[in-house]
Specification:
This protein is of the alpha+beta class. The chain is 29% helix and 21% strand.
Length: 206
């Protein structure tokens, strides 16, 4: 949401499904409840364009999304469980280590940086950082912050879409990658008149 050429159909897909969604910074920007000065010029232009594509009921849906949800023993938040409305990035080992006191569940799923990563708080409170994990086995007594990456606009050099599968029975989280037609997505972004870099970067994963 916020970079692609089809925001209205994407929101319709969410509204029409029984899914758990939390608000991201681009959702707030598109709904007019966030100062666009926070964004770089390309993201700002995309947010302004996106806002013009949405119907009133779609804007209301985005504006009503919560910043944080707890479901099945996991905390869900777009940016950080520590001051979620500040839209802080969790990128380094230190970034993730400092947020564990901000949530009570064993698991916390985030996105925002568009880079898959995991922070593991061991039983002795020591925090390990694992950038780009493929699969994690979840151990009782340990706590985890997991960045699931992004579908589109990746930042880790891999153009493939990223998502995570949380298997409660197997006590595991697996970050998976799947190829999609990034070239067509780029074409549609260009055709919409959005900043060209937003389409071009899809092919580079940067």
């Amino acid at each position: 949401m916020g970079y692609g050429a089809d925001p209205a159909p994407v929101v319709d897909q969410l509204i029409g499904r029984d899914v758990i969604v939390v608000a991201g910074n681009h959702d707030h920007a598109s709904a007019g409840i966030m100062d666009l000065e926070w964004f770089n010029p390309f993201a700002r232009a995309a947010a302004e364009w996106t806002a013009g594509q949405l119907r009133p009921e779609q804007v209301r849906y985005l504006a009503g999304l919560p910043l944080v949800r707890e479901e099945a023993g996991a905390t869900l938040v777009h940016a950080s469980p520590l001051d979620p409305g500040e839209w802080s990035y969790l990128v380094s080992a230190r970034d993730g280590a400092r947020v564990f006191p901000a949530f009570a569940t064993a698991l916390c799923f985030v996105g925002h940086s568009h880079m898959p990563a995991a922070w593991i708080c061991r039983e002795d409170k020591r925090v390990e950082f694992a950038p780009g994990p493929a699969r994690l086995t979840l151990h009782p007594g340990r706590r985890y912050v997991i960045n699931v990456g992004s579908v589109g606009q990746p930042r880790d050099g891999d153009p493939a879409a990223a998502y995570a599968v949380w298997d409660l029975e197997a006590a595991s989280v697996e970050v998976r990658r799947v190829d999609y037609d990034a070239g067509e997505a780029r074409r549609r972004i260009h055709a919409a008149g959005l900043p060209a870099i937003l389409g071009d970067r899809l092919l580079r994963g940067r």
